Amino acid sequence: MHCYRHPDVETGIRCARCEKPICPECMVSAAVGFQCPDCVRTGSGTGHAPDANRPRTIAGGRVRADGRFVTKILIAVNLGLFIAAQVVGERFVDRLVMIGYAYNPVLGEVVGVADGEWYRLFTSAFLHQEAMHFVFNMVGLWVIGGIVEPELGRMRYAALCLLSGLSGSALVYLISPANQASLGASGMVYGLIGAWVVLARWRRHDMGPVMLFVAISLVFTFARPGVSWEAHVGGLVAGALVTYGLVHAPRARRELVQYAVCGLILLIDLGLVLSRTAALT
After folding, report:
1. Which of 61, 113, 267, 279 is most buried, by CB atoms within 10 Å?
2. CATH 1.50.10.10: does it fit domain 69-280?
3. CB atoms within 10 A of CB 66
4. pTM over 0.90
5. Contact, 53 vs 45, CB < 8 A?
6. What is the pLDDT of residues 76-102, one digit of tens each?
């Protein structure tokens, strides 16, 4: 690409607001990334600027001062459920954990998604029982979420996290034994890893360190016993697909395409859940 103000200067940076290519001479630091002089001039000093003139993320969301607002909420929800699991114990965990179809001796009843408890697909993505599992996932959510959330904007980032967690649970439900329990925010965290890969490529960053991190994460996924690799892979793939649709949607039909991509992932998850339910029942 060549700078829109200096056609003879090559650049790999775009304005975070209008996405025009800009060179180092034209870059103006913003809350997220850089803006071009035109966007700074039209948007600066106007607390009531028209919505079209407000700074936007690369996915079309509003640029916010707090780049971890949604991430903090997600961590707070995880923390609340973790504390409840420690205080209440097994009975609380058994009500929310991801399980397909099984008789639970603690509750004395048949439980699972196939028995109509679809909420488990979501609640299990926020539930932790072991301290190290909780800490590991929250560190990943904080670090990688701090990279992804400012790039997408709050609403799109929230949709990414929820769809990643749901997709991880859906793949667990589809592949794992019906009576095997699964819990944790790993699907969500791996969804953020998939999003980070897409964003790094879009920003033309050096992909070597990024792909090395992904490779190491997958090695740990498959090398450690007791890890729900289905949740990791499901979240990773969903996160990458959702983010690709969010950042590559054409500006003329951006929101329509973004809604369609998120809806498509949701329909795929629904299809997986329905097919597995039919097989189990």
Report:
1. 113
2. no
3. 12
4. no
5. no
6. 999 999 999 999 988 999 999 999 998
